[in-house]
Write a structure and sequence with these properties.
It is built from 23 helices and 16 strands. The protein is an alpha/beta fold and 580 residues long. The strands form four sheets. The chain has a ten-stranded mixed β-sheet, sandwiched between helices. Strands 3-16 form a two-stranded antiparallel sheet. A two-stranded antiparallel sheet has the order 8-9. Strand 1 and strand 2 form a beta hairpin. Helix 4 packs antiparallel against helix 6 and helix 11 crosses helix 18. Pfam families: PhaC_N (PF07167). GO terms for molecular function: acyltransferase activity. This is Class I poly(R)-hydroxyalkanoic acid synthase. Keywords: Acyltransferase, Transferase.
């Protein structure tokens, strides 16, 4: 009996779980170890944590009682103010019935009280910063999923639509749901509205090179004279390149051509399971460096300008650092849109980056050979679930509507698979271990990298509202690379501020020319703010590094690189379901 009394709470719980047929069968040794590792903090919360939890529960019960009593106050003629209101940014409850209909209003307030209590409980938990951030994220995600707006019986707009259409909206919604289940993704834009090469990605050009990983497209000049040095664009490989060429009103490519640039762009291939062993080195050698060589060989000019975006920017950083000093002298300039070198604060995606989640996902990668593009798309959508998931669930499935055409959302849904080896290298070395900023921390193409070796003129461009690549993190490149770095900060988001920011009718502003040696916020305070798009300001910077102007080429490619398919090429038409 004495031995039994001396058992620790941990061993008691372990014995209970192991002997419980419903629980123990689902818990392996690793799960047991993980659970036991957090037991001390769960078993003995501090007095402050207990007090915070108690306050949360008392406040919830007090407000819930007020809400339950409000109908009686209304019946007695006393009236009652709302106990809780949705925030000004919360657009889920914009339908008038959420205010005017007492049942709907009661449901809304009950939900808001419960979700607030859930989130405040997490806020009071005594966990390390990352664990709390992850728990807070998934708690908010669960709370968003349970909103009454997401269910047909509790959404007044859905009920009204069903009555008005005599149930046809529900039939149409079920049809939309079955179609999306087959495709594996929620439809966010009318899929029939855009045709590659016609009303999207329509700037004229030709594929002038193709290998197993990339197509290189050269675009037809739009002016009589072009700059000597070609501009090579390295887009991210997680989406298709045509974000730089959506349509005439938004096309970065077309605008660059109008400024006299001789533009080449990489079109990354959508990885198949057979390509799963392709490495980061392969993407540099067969992708980035090869595209550089193609542009040089076709133009006959050794020096080139480079522009890259997001993970494409990270590739170019490693490609430049892996070059010899002599090779880097052939890079006239390098521009990086929303590109991190220091990953110590990777923004909202940090909730997906820890060893447990990486290990768990590795099993999926080992099975499939690739990171399915839809997986990455779903993860990004989870970061803003109400706008990117539940809005479309309500619109498509509950209301039975087809989302309107939207070129940016069409592109956003057109994802690409990534090879297992390449993706694992990127996540573990950059996001998880943050080794790119460390001299010798990462080896690419046989060379230990030091980003301080990148001595070419660089321009980093980031956006104030970018939730995927925080601008304050990208700003740290100024300290890591050196003095020959320009920084431009634009209003807008990850896409809308950078790749899409056409000068015509631009309502944004940007900052430039801040004092060197300051931290990011002090730099912004010292910088000049200018209304309009950063594109024209940047092009003036680029023009100084582009050489003389010469007669525009009459033909694309040359004898060695014969023009093949018309832009946008063939790789861009391969989708994730086709190759995943």
């Amino acid at each position: 009996m004495a031995n039994q009394d001396n058992k620790s709470p941990e061993s008691e719980l372990l014995g209970f779980l192991s002997g419980n047929p419903l629980l123990g069968s689902h818990l392996g040794q690793k799960e047991m170890d993980d659970l036991l590792s957090v037991l001390p903090s769960l078993a003995a919360p501090s007095a402050n944590a207990v007090q915070a939890w108690t306050n949360t529960m008392m406040n919830y019960q007090r407000d819930a009682l007020k809400l339950w009593m409000s109908p009686w106050a209304n019946l007695s003629g006393q009236g009652s103010a709302s106990v809780i209101e949705p925030s000004a940014e919360d657009r889920r409850f914009k339908d008038e019935d959420w205010k005017k209909n007492p049942v709907c209003n009661f449901l809304m307030q009950s939900y808001l009280l419960a979700s607030r209590a859930m989130c405040e409980t997490v806020d009071a938990a005594e966990l390390d910063a990352h664990e709390k951030r992850v728990l807070s994220f998934y708690t908010r995600y669960a709370a968003d999923a349970l909103a009454p707006t997401n269910f047909a019986y509790t959404n007044p707009e859905v009920i009204r639509q069903a009555v008005e259409t005599r149930g046809q909206s529900l039939v149409d919604g079920f049809k939309n749901l079955t179609e999306d289940l087959q495709s594996g993704a929620i439809t966010t834009s009318d899929p029939s509205a855009f045709v590659l090469g016609e009303n999207i990605a329509g700037t004229q050009g030709n594929v002038v090179f193709r290998n197993e990983l990339i197509e290189v497209i050269q675009y037809k000049p739009l002016v009589e004279k072009v700059y000597q040095r070609p501009l090579v664009i390295v887009p991210p490989c997680v989406n298709k390149f045509y974000i730089f060429d959506l349509n005439e009103r938004k096309s970065f490519v077309k605008h660059a051509l109008e400024q006299g640039q001789n533009v080449f762009i990489i079109s990354w291939r959508n990885a198949t399971p057979e390509m799963g062993d392709l490495s980061w080195d392969d993407y540099i050698q067969k992708g980035v460096w090869t595209a550089f060589d193609v542009a040089r060989d076709i133009t006959g000019i050794k020096k080139i300008n480079v522009l890259s975006w997001c993970i494409g920017g990270t590739m170019v950083v490693t490609a430049l650092a892996a070059m010899s000093a002599a090779e880097r002298r052939n890079i006239a300039s390098a521009t990086f849109l929303t590109t991190m070198i220091d990953f110590s604060d990777p923004g909202e995606v940090e909730v997906f980056i820890d060893q447990k989640q990486i290990d768990a996902y590795q099993n999926r990668l080992d099975t499939s050979g690739v990171l399915p593009g839809n997986d990455l798309s779903r993860a990004m959508a989870m970061l803003h679930a109400n706008e990117s998931i539940w809005h479309f669930v309500i619109n498509n499935y509950l209301l039975g509507k087809t989302p309107p055409p939207f070129d940016v959302l069409h592109w956003n849904a057109d994802t690409s698979n990534l090879p297992k080896a390449m993706y694992s290298f990127f996540v573990e070395n950059m996001y998880y271990e943050d080794k790119l900023k460390v001299p010798g921390g990462v080896t690419v193409c046989g060379k230990p990298l030091n980003v301080a070796d990148i001595d070419v003129p660089c321009c980093f461009i980031s956006a104030t509202e970018d939730h995927i690549v925080p601008w304050r993190s990208t700003f740290l490149a100024k300290q890591l690379i050196g003095d020959n770095v320009e920084f431009i900060l634009t209003e807008g988001g990850h896409v809308s501020g950078t790749a899409i920011n056409h000068p015509v009718k631009c309502r944004r502003s940007f900052w430039y020319g801040g004092t060197n040696g300051l931290d990011c916020d002090a730099w912004q305070a010292s910088a000049q703010k200018q209304a309009g798009s950063w594109w024209e300001h940047w092009h003036a910077w680029l023009a100084e590094k582009s050489g003389n102007q010469i007669a525009a080429p009459q033909q694309l490619g040359n004898k060695e690189y014969q023009p093949m398919d018309a832009a946008p090429g063939t790789y861009v038409k391969e989708d994730v379901n086709q190759n995943g």
